Every structure is written in C-alpha cells, then in structure tokens.
C-alpha cells in the first residue's frame, strides 16, 4: 500500500530521530589507537614492544571473531556434553607445542634467551586453579574472555575486571604464605624425557582428552554436534566473522609462538592486573614493595616504570582494542550496550573476578598463562591447572543460576 505524504513525513522524522550507533567511529578510533599506540611504543620503548602490542590486538581480534571461549567451552561440555570447544583447545595446544618445541630446545632466538612457563605443582597451584575455575563461571569469562568481552561491549566484563584486579592485589599482599606451602619441583616433559619423548607424551595427553570428550559427546547425541556459528557473510567473514573454532585455535597457537619468540616468554594476561592494582593502592599511600610478591627485582622494576614498559599491560590493552575493532566490524555496535544488569549478576561477576584474580596469582597464571602457556611449555603444572580449574568449573556452573545467568 502506498504511503501518504503525511505518513512519509512521519517515517522520515522517526528515522532522523532514531539513535545513531557510531560503528564507523568505533572502527576509526580503534584503528587510530592501534596505529598510534604502535608508533608510540616503537619510539619510546622498542620495536619488540610495538610488535607485541600488535600481536595483542590480533589475539583480541581472533578471540572475538572465533568466539573462542575457554569458560563457555567447558560449560557446554559440563552441561550438555558438547565438546567442540575443548577439542579446539587440544588442537591449539598441540600446534603451539610443536611451534614452542624448537624454540625451547634451542633456548634463544633473535639474540635473547627464550624459556617457557614451567613451575612446580603444589598447594598454591591446586587451590589457585580451583578458585579460578569457580570464578571463571561466576564472572562469565576467563582472563582473556573478560578482556575481549569488554572490547565486545559486554558491560558485565568491566565488573569482572574490577574484581580481577582487586583479587590480584589481595593475593600479592600475602603471597609469601602460599609460597611456603608444600610443592613439587618444576617438572618439564622435554626436560625429563628429551625433546622427542616429551613431545610424544604431550601428544598422548592431548589426544586422550580429545578422545574422552569425543566419546562423551557421541554417547549423548550419537554423533558430534557442531556448535560454531554459521558463516553468514561469505568472504566478508574475513573481517566480519564469525570464524570457526579451528581457525581460532590455529591463529592463537601461532600468536603465542610469536609472543615467545619476541618477548622470550609465552603469552600472559593476569600479571598486569596485579601491577595495575599495586599502582592504584600506591595512590592511597600503601607501599606494595613491602609485600613478598614484589621482592623480585623484575617485578619491582615493573612497579617503578611507566605502565607502557610492561609487556603484559601493553598486550592486555591492545587485546581489548582488537576485540573492539572486531566487534565493530561484525556489527555488534549496531545495537546499544546493555548497561543495566541484574544485581545478582553484578555481584556474581565481582565475586568471580575476585576469585580469578586471587587464584591466578597463586597458580602462576590464568587460562592463557598457566593453562595455554604452561601446557605449550611442556610443564606439568599446566596440566595440573587444567584438571583443578575444570573441577572448580563443575562447582561454578552449579552456582551460575544463583547469579541470574541462564547457562
């Protein structure tokens, strides 16, 4: 039916008064921050720091476009026995291990030493990973998940991050108590069994997890169930997404290997939260250098330096910006951000963040530093982290409905 002139005028006024969603502006600002930040770090710190900034942004872009979640993947398996996410994680670990192996064996690259994350397994790792597992379900995201959710416009992630930082500071205040708890000596597969033996053992463990998850899913459904989002954009999915979990796994493995090459250590997330929190409490006259955690010379130096000298900080910030860019390109910001959340969800996110921040300091890292980086470094503590964080997630998933999540 043809519209009258009056109806057309009304429609035009409604269109003119409709809220504008600044997608183009978000894309432009994201690119400006990334380019400006890269140039700033290149001129003020080093080309390595600038390149790590770019890699952090790339990691955030990949995490968002592939919807590569550690928390959601575990939850889907716990509740529904859908294991595609966990299988993707095992593939990511296998590829990262293959890329890490020659670098770790050689011990140096680009003129600087290279070493993985290899720590002892003890009470602190067990308790820390367990707390982290509960917290990641209550906070609705792990460490990397929290950051890319913020970039993707999830207001709940901001609350989780606040709790994350607070929990990290609390843990550093009495880090010495946990450091004195019983623990085994650091155990490296390639250190104990050689490069070939350690790599084969790694592949066997990864294959075992892959097999168990696959069998459990087939028993439930009779076949494997695809849970990745369907590509609706054709070739434009390169920048609009969504990407498959397999593509995400491969790109994240390559990203971590490049981080190892450039920085001399694997990708990490949560040490920056402790640093941010320590600098914040300094504003109120608190001296964190008196705490055991900050007795290490490198950590003291990080506390004294501007934040842009800290590699983890630089990569965390660019991760959020990379996710912001990905979300804008994917059309996320054509809809307004939902700032209003149920009170129970806000409280749950804050508690979850506190538990993750505290647990990450005890367990030498998070899902990226301890789980991804630890396993890729052939460290037994990475596998211990996986086991106890998963056990914690079993409890966290049960608690989610009390925080107004719909699982």
UniProtKB/TrEMBL annotation:
<feature type="transmembrane region" description="Helical">
    <location>
        <begin position="370"/>
        <end position="397"/>
    </location>
</feature>
<dbReference type="InterPro" id="IPR007272">
    <property type="entry name" value="Sulf_transp_TsuA/YedE"/>
</dbReference>
<keyword id="KW-0813">Transport</keyword>
<keyword id="KW-0997">Cell inner membrane</keyword>
<feature type="transmembrane region" description="Helical">
    <location>
        <begin position="189"/>
        <end position="213"/>
    </location>
</feature>
<feature type="transmembrane region" description="Helical">
    <location>
        <begin position="86"/>
        <end position="105"/>
    </location>
</feature>
<dbReference type="Pfam" id="PF04143">
    <property type="entry name" value="Sulf_transp"/>
</dbReference>
<keyword id="KW-1133">Transmembrane helix</keyword>
<feature type="transmembrane region" description="Helical">
    <location>
        <begin position="314"/>
        <end position="333"/>
    </location>
</feature>
<protein>
    <submittedName>
        <fullName>YeeE/YedE family protein</fullName>
    </submittedName>
</protein>
<comment type="similarity">
    <text>Belongs to the TsuA/YedE (TC 9.B.102) family.</text>
</comment>
<feature type="transmembrane region" description="Helical">
    <location>
        <begin position="117"/>
        <end position="138"/>
    </location>
</feature>
<feature type="transmembrane region" description="Helical">
    <location>
        <begin position="243"/>
        <end position="261"/>
    </location>
</feature>
<feature type="transmembrane region" description="Helical">
    <location>
        <begin position="50"/>
        <end position="66"/>
    </location>
</feature>
<keyword id="KW-0812">Transmembrane</keyword>
<feature type="transmembrane region" description="Helical">
    <location>
        <begin position="24"/>
        <end position="43"/>
    </location>
</feature>
<feature type="transmembrane region" description="Helical">
    <location>
        <begin position="345"/>
        <end position="364"/>
    </location>
</feature>
<keyword id="KW-1003">Cell membrane</keyword>
<keyword id="KW-0472">Membrane</keyword>
<feature type="transmembrane region" description="Helical">
    <location>
        <begin position="158"/>
        <end position="177"/>
    </location>
</feature>
């Amino acid at each position: 039916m043809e519209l009258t002139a009056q109806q057309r005028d009304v429609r035009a006024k409604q269109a003119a008064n409709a809220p504008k969603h600044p997608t183009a502006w978000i894309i432009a600002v994201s690119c400006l921050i990334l380019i400006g930040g890269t140039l700033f770090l290149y001129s003020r710190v080093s080309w390595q720091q600038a390149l790590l900034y770019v890699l952090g942004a790339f990691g955030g872009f990949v995490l968002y476009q592939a919807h590569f979640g550690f928390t959601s993947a575990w939850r889907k398996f716990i509740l529904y026995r859908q294991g595609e996410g966990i299988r993707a994680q095992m593939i990511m670990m296998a590829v990262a291990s293959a890329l890490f192996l020659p670098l770790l064996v050689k011990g140096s690259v680009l003129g600087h030493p290279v070493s993985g994350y290899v720590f002892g397994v003890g009470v602190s790792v067990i308790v820390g990973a367990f707390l982290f597992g509960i917290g990641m379900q209550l906070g609705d995201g792990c460490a990397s998940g929290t950051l890319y959710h913020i970039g993707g416009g999830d207001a709940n992630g901001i609350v989780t991050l606040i709790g994350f930082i607070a929990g990290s500071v609390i843990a550093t205040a009495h880090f010495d108590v946990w450091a004195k708890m019983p623990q085994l000596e650091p155990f490296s597969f390639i250190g104990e069994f050689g490069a070939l033996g350690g790599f084969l053992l790694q592949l066997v463990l990864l294959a075992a997890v892959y097999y168990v998850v696959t069998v459990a899913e087939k028993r439930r459904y009779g076949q494997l169930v695809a849970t990745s989002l369907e590509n609706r954009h054709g070739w434009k999915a390169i920048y609009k997404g969504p990407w498959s979990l397999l593509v995400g796994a491969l790109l994240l493995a390559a990203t971590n290997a490049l981080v190892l090459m450039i920085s001399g250590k694997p990708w990490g997330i949560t040490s920056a939260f402790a640093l941010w929190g320590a600098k914040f409490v300094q504003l109120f006259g608190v001296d964190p250098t008196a705490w055991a955690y900050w007795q290490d010379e490198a950590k003291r130096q990080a506390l004294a330096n501007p934040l842009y000298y800290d590699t983890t900080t630089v990569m965390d910030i660019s991760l959020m910006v990379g996710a912001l860019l990905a979300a804008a390109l994917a059309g996320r910001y054509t809809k307004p951000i939902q700032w209003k959340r149920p009170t129970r969800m806000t409280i749950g996110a804050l508690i979850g963040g506190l538990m993750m921040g505290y647990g990450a300091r005890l367990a030498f890292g998070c899902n990226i530093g301890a789980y991804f980086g630890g396993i890729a470094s052939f460290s037994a503590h990475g596998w211990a982290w996986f086991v106890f964080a998963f056990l914690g997630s079993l409890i966290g998933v049960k608690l989610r409905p009390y925080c107004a999540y719909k699982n």
